UniProtKB/TrEMBL annotation:
<feature type="compositionally biased region" description="Polar residues">
    <location>
        <begin position="616"/>
        <end position="633"/>
    </location>
</feature>
<feature type="transmembrane region" description="Helical">
    <location>
        <begin position="364"/>
        <end position="387"/>
    </location>
</feature>
<protein>
    <submittedName>
        <fullName>Sodium/hydrogen exchanger</fullName>
    </submittedName>
</protein>
<dbReference type="GO" id="GO:0015297">
    <property type="term" value="F:antiporter activity"/>
</dbReference>
<feature type="transmembrane region" description="Helical">
    <location>
        <begin position="6"/>
        <end position="24"/>
    </location>
</feature>
<dbReference type="GO" id="GO:0005886">
    <property type="term" value="C:plasma membrane"/>
</dbReference>
<feature type="transmembrane region" description="Helical">
    <location>
        <begin position="89"/>
        <end position="112"/>
    </location>
</feature>
<feature type="transmembrane region" description="Helical">
    <location>
        <begin position="182"/>
        <end position="205"/>
    </location>
</feature>
<keyword id="KW-1133">Transmembrane helix</keyword>
<feature type="region of interest" description="Disordered">
    <location>
        <begin position="608"/>
        <end position="643"/>
    </location>
</feature>
<dbReference type="GO" id="GO:1902600">
    <property type="term" value="P:proton transmembrane transport"/>
</dbReference>
<feature type="transmembrane region" description="Helical">
    <location>
        <begin position="31"/>
        <end position="48"/>
    </location>
</feature>
<keyword id="KW-1003">Cell membrane</keyword>
<feature type="transmembrane region" description="Helical">
    <location>
        <begin position="118"/>
        <end position="138"/>
    </location>
</feature>
<feature type="transmembrane region" description="Helical">
    <location>
        <begin position="331"/>
        <end position="352"/>
    </location>
</feature>
<keyword id="KW-0472">Membrane</keyword>
<keyword id="KW-0050">Antiport</keyword>
Length: 643
């Protein structure tokens, strides 16, 4: 028996990784292969019976897994970020949540025949969307920037809000089964313990992190164990209050000043992926296919209400007072897939409700899974065509994500932003991020290849990645991560400048990406040029001032970087003989090249004065400065891919 249990646990682990890989490879929400896998090994082939394997441990395993998932989700709920992302997001996670909850709850009561309490609990369970299903869908749909931002932030913020709503409704439902005289007392007791311990432990963890009471290597483990301890303690003090406690803890930590939770979020994400994958396979394996089929027309009718009434009504109510066009509203009305939080929390609550012998509790899980399957499958398959029909697909993404926020990267970003090119600097060095923010450059603090970045880093409008960081161990990871997202010919990095003894350890597929700005251009060269007084300038190439004139003027001290042509951004990656006129050339000029050009201008001006000519006061090349060998010409990334 022990060997069988061990084998089944190993099987769940292997299947969860395979399903996550399939979701990543197919650009689909991982919930789809996880769901299919759970159904196959469970009710279809009867290879996995979670109740038989775990026995009495099944409920504690699901409880702890849900606690970790809710805590991690709550850590992302920063109120200042909600305000920064527009009125529509704020409306969707407040008024929209309320409208969706009431609409689904009322429909569930009349269609499924549930009691009002159970119907409102079901409504609370399925208001959440979640970034784990939204983000992969947005990558394949590629709607315009504003819509992608609204949907992504709605998914991030609504997770803990919806979970908190579900917990409160569930706690009311459980105490409502008691004599009327104890209902209010029990409910206030749950709220008091949950809110009180959540604030107390959240503040305590925040102080611990802010004052560095534990060493760095113990920080993540300490937060995890304290969170689980708070969950257990809360349930011991007041039954069913633990989920409320961990949700409030996460929200408190996310909004506490002076507390850096970036590493904690990344650590919790690793655990969350593990719990999501394993839990979802186990939960799907427990699903009774007969119960799912027995939902019949009522289940399908409720699914239609969720998709065609509740969501559009919520979106159009929330759009009042905003400037969203009609097409944008119709697109938002269709995209709202449900995810893992609904599945995990509903399964946990169903077990508890069945123990309390609440009528209809056995239908909660099949109904939630029906909503998940219906929304994810239908919207994944049709949202792209719907976006094209409405004309809300994004055009060619010309923006740049730059990994590394050194002084060179900041100066380059400032010039590009002046030319209306979208730029985001990503770095895990806080000083670089702070200086970038002082220059009003959009930033992401952390590892851009992390799970947190997948959810929090807004990639809308960013079509290429430039790796300009000195982090040799992290650069390949970031490069390969974004090759899968953006495409192989959309990711470029600087040359390493290392000899063959070091280069042979790197793969050829990675080395061929290290050609940005020219084969021999390294981070050290760029940093040294900027440190010695070099500047990044934008120069207009015209019939009167061609690329040949540019080379003659600045000589070997000029390094062309990027040029802009008809609204498109062209990266310079290897030498050619010439560049076309009618472009804006962005280049790095050494201090010597600038001084020589200035001296030449002064000599020309002096000669003109001697001849009695009028000398214009502007630079001959019409260049603009940003306070920041043989000159390589340019071949663009697009041209290299084509040729």
């Amino acid at each position: 028996m022990v060997e069988k249990i061990t084998a089944m646990l190993g099987l769940v682990g292997i299947l969860s990784i395979v399903c996550q890989w399939l979701g990543w490879r197919l650009r689909l929400p991982a919930i789809l292969p996880l769901l299919l896998c759970g159904l196959l090994v469970g009710p279809v082939f009867n290879l996995l019976d979670p109740d038989a394997i775990f026995g009495d441990l099944l409920f504690p395993v699901i409880s702890l897994g849900v606690a970790v998932i809710l805590f991690e989700g709550a850590l992302t709920l920063n109120f200042s970020e909600i305000r920064e992302h527009g009125r529509m997001v704020t409306h969707l996670v407040s008024l929209g949540t309320l409208v969706t909850w009431i609409c689904i709850g009322v429909a569930t009561h009349f269609i499924m025949g549930f009691s009002w309490e159970l119907a409102m609990l079901f409504g609370a369970l399925v208001v959440v969307t979640g970034p784990t299903v939204i983000v992969p869908m947005l990558r394949s749909i590629k709607p315009k920037s504003q819509l992608a931002s609204i949907l992504r932030w709605e998914g991030i913020v609504i997770d803990p809000i919806g979970a908190l709503l579900a917990v409160l409704v569930f706690e009311y439902l459980t105490v409502a089964a008691e004599p009327a005289s104890h209902v209010l007392l029990s409910l206030f007791s749950m709220l008091g313990v949950g809110l009180g311990l959540g604030v107390l432990f959240g503040y305590g963890i925040g102080v611990m992190l802010r004052r560095a009471w534990v060493p760095h290597y113990l920080k993540n483990t300490a937060v995890l164990t304290i969170m689980l301890g708070a969950f257990v303690a809360s349930n011991l003090l007041q039954e069913e209050s633990g989920l409320l406690t961990v949700t409030v803890m996460g929200i408190w930590l996310a909004n506490m000043r002076g507390v850096d939770i970036g590493e904690i979020i990344e650590f919790k994400e690793t655990l969350t992926v593990l719990f999501i994958s394993g839990l979802f396979i186990l939960l799907a394996a427990r699903l009774d296919s007969t119960a799912l089929m027995q939902l019949g027309w009522q289940g399908l009718a409720l699914l239609l209400v969720v998709m065609f009434i509740a969501r559009p009504l919520s979106v159009w109510c929330c759009a009042v007072g905003t400037s969203l066009p009609r097409a944008d509203k119709w697109f938002l009305s269709w995209v709202a897939p449900r995810g893992i939080v609904a599945a995990a929390v509903s399964s946990l609550f169903a077990i508890k409700l069945e123990r309390l012998e609440v009528a209809g509790a056995d239908k909660i899980v099949p109904l939630v899974f029906l909503i998940i399957i219906g929304t994810v499958v239908s919207q994944s398959l049709t949202a792209g065509a719907w976006a094209r029909f409405l004309g809300v697909k994004a055009g060619s993404a010309q923006g740049l994500l730059i990994f590394g926020a050194s002084k060179f990267a900041r100066e380059l970003a400032k010039v590009l932003l002046q030319k209306n090119v979208s730029v985001v600097l990503a770095d895990n060095n806080w000083d670089n991020i702070r200086l970038s923010r002082m220059d009003n450059i959009p930033v992401y603090f952390g590892n851009p290849a992390s799970e947190h970045a997948d959810n929090a880093l807004d990639m809308t409008g960013l079509g290429r990645l430039l790796v300009l960081s000195p982090y040799r161990q992290l650069n390949p990871l970031v490069t390969f991560h974004f090759q899968d997202i953006l495409g192989k010919n959309k990711v470029f990095g600087l040359g390493s400048g290392e000899g063959n003894s070091a280069r042979h350890q790197l793969s050829e597929s990675y080395l061929e990406r290290l050609c940005l700005f020219g084969d021999n251009v390294t981070y050290a060269r760029l940093a040294s040029t900027i440190a010695k007084g070099g500047k990044i300038k934008s120069t207009s190439l015209t019939e009167n001032f061609s690329f040949a004139d540019f080379k003659q003027r600045y000589g070997e001290g000029a390094l062309p970087l990027i040029y802009l042509q008809e609204g498109k951004v062209k990266l310079i990656i290897q030498a050619v003989d010439d560049l076309p006129v009618g472009i804006e050339l962005i280049s790095l000029l050494s201090e010597e090249a600038l001084n020589e050009a200035l001296l030449a201008d002064e000599k020309k001006a002096a000669a003109s004065l001697e001849d009695g000519e009028c000398v214009p006061s502007t630079s001959v090349d019409g260049s603009q400065e940003s306070k920041g060998s043989q000159v390589p010409s340019a071949v663009t990334a697009d041209e290299k891919a084509a040729g």
